[in-house]
Amino acid sequence: MNKEEQVIMGFRDLLNKLVWLNKYKMEKSLKGYKPTEVHCIEYIGNNVDANVTKLAESFYMTRSAMSKLTKKLMQKGLIESYQKPDNKKEIYFRLTEQGKVIYKIHEELHKEFRERDKAVFEQVTEEQFDGMLSFVEKYSKHLDAEIKKLGIDMKSE
Question: What's the CATH class of domain 3-123?
Answer without folding.
Answer: mainly alpha
